[in-house]
Specification:
Length: 190
């Protein structure tokens, strides 16, 4: 492209793409790049989903469930952890929804709820294996439960949690009550 004057040549130098192409970059190129990136991201999520699966917990899962629940933030005020006999009730009772997230065939997160009247439930526990915390497994399990809550006849969730988990529940759009030691959270799932 011949340049008639020095100003036009300088202007062209600033407006051309750093990527060498025969044609200038167009919105089609940007759309193509956007969808290529989105496709790679979707493939990544799909591969994670293939490695992770969520299912209802059964009594055979009790030992691993107890291991995950034995964390200091889940310790009761008397210093004890949830007992196996009490937790087994949630795995066998039809009024309870207990889910586990398995990653590479290893349970890494649990969610335990109990149905209440008026189509609600009390979420007793949501916990992630201590070595896997911060990996998004808790959020994935919570979102799965919220998405499928209607299948279990659940329209709203109530739970109590400590101050350490406030950000987690706020990030997941739970309404948080004010308290000093224990915070109440609520979410309408309709």
């Amino acid at each position: 492209m011949p340049f008639n004057n020095r100003f036009a040549k300088q202007n062209y130098a600033f407006t051309r793409s750093p990527i060498r192409t025969e044609k200038p970059l167009t919105s089609d190129w940007f759309l193509h790049a956007h969808f290529a990136i989105r496709r790679r991201f979707t493939d990544l999520i799909d591969s994670m989903a293939q490695q992770s699966r969520i299912r209802r917990l059964i009594l055979d899962d009790l030992t691993r469930t107890i291991e995950i629940l034995h964390q200091d933030p889940l310790r009761y005020s008397d210093g004890n952890y949830p007992e196996a006999g009490w937790i087994s009730h949630f795995l066998t009772d039809d009024r309870c929804v207990s889910l586990g997230l398995f990653h590479n065939d290893d349970m890494v997160a649990v969610l335990i709820t109990e149905k209440l009247s008026l189509n609600g439930c009390l979420m007793w526990f949501i916990a992630v294996d201590q070595q896997k915390q911060g990996s998004g497994f808790g959020t994935e399990l919570l979102r799965y439960f919220e998405k499928h809550a209607g299948d279990y006849g659940i329209e709203w969730v109530f739970l109590n949690a400590t101050k350490n988990s406030l950000d987690f529940y706020r990030k997941n759009e739970y309404i948080t009550g004010n308290s000093a030691a224990v915070y109440e959270h609520y979410k309408d799932l309709k």
